[in-house]
Amino acid sequence: MQNIVEILNSFDPITLPELQSHALMRRFDTKFKFHIDRLPEFLKHVSKDYYILDINNIRLHKYETLYFDTDEFQLFVQHHNVARNRYKIRFRRYADSNLTFFEIKHKNNKNFTVKQRIQLKEVEKSLLNEAGDFLKENTNLDPSVLKPKVWVYYYRLTLVNKISEERLTIDIDPSFKMNDTSAAFKPLVIAEVKQAKFMRSPFLALMRKNHIHVESISKYCLGVYLTNKNIKKNNFKHSITSINKLCHEKN
Predict the structure, then answer these.
(1) How far apart are CA 170 and CA 172, in angstroms?
(2) For residue 213, what is the DSSP state?
(3) How far does CA 180 lie from the centroid of its chain?
(4) Ordered per-residue pLDDT tens for the chain, 251 residues
(5) Which of 29, 193, 223, 249 has the most other CB atoms within 10 Å of its CB?
């Protein structure tokens, strides 16, 4: 981890207010996974192409996310069945800046992601107040049937392309908790390229060069898969097997 932090310090910084102009709340997402041992070389390769989010001299930020779903895990099942219109509903706390948002993430039938959010004082365990009103205003979902289902924790670094409309988030050390059940994929890195439209990208080119393929990876679905035994998950078995194999590789 120390080696990664040192490399992050070689990036030119961007502040949180500056980042807002690159929010990309409507975008196409492209995801990849790889072992954390490969992260230092990848970061070095793109260090001149991207700014890095710096908040109070912190460049690797702790995230805490609480996802909501129905008792039947309707939103999880929609993702499992590759539904063309699907939602993720969550509270996200940015631990280092002590900011909390309630977020609605919608992937439509054109594979386009739209994210909406409001800032709230703290993570709530129900959606019967302001968060529920926001949900009803922006979706046809019933907030009264959505309950907390799984916590997801990880560290994120956020990069912004210096010349085009692109953000890159890299999540490391993901862990998951649901009631008394917990799991983790410590060597796993999930990288996500966010673009208003598909365009050339230094990071995408780097992934192609290293034969790292695009993957559909949901931290929420990973968390439910790992912490809930009694749920439909056949379509995710190959992905979990692949992640387990990757995490046990010696790079």
Answers:
(1) 7
(2) P
(3) 23
(4) 658 989 999 999 999 888 877 666 677 889 999 999 999 999 999 999 999 999 999 999 999 999 999 999 999 999 888 777 899 999 999 988 889 999 999 988 777 888 999 999 999 999 989 999 999 999 999 999 999 999 999 999 999 999 988 999 999 999 999 989 999 999 999 999 999 888 889 999 999 999 999 988 899 999 999 998 888 778 888 888 999 999 887 55
(5) 223
148: left (phi over 0), alpha (psi -120 to 50) or beta: beta
- Number of C-beta neighbours around residue 14 at 10 A: 19
CA trace torsion 77, 80, 86, 92 (10° rounding): 90
Six token digits for residue 28: 């196409």
Task: Identify the CA nearest to 135 among candidates 156, 105, 95.
Answer: 105
CATH of the domain at 51: 2.40.320.10
Domain count of the fold of the chain: 1
0.85 cut: is pTM over it? Answer: yes
Spatial distance between the Cα atoms of 102 and 160, rounded to a whole number of angstroms? 23
Could you tell me which of 239, 221, 223, 228 has the C-alpha nearest to residue 79? 221
Q: Dump strand ranges (E) for the chain.
A: 12-14, 26-35, 50-53, 61-69, 86-94, 99-107, 113-120, 147-161, 166-178, 181-184, 188-195
- Is the Cβ–Cβ distance between 227 and 181 less than 8 Å? yes
Q: Which two tokens stand for residue 71?
A: 């008792």
Question: Range of 221's domain?
Answer: 2-247
CA–CA gap between residue 80 and residue 130 (Å, rounded) = 29
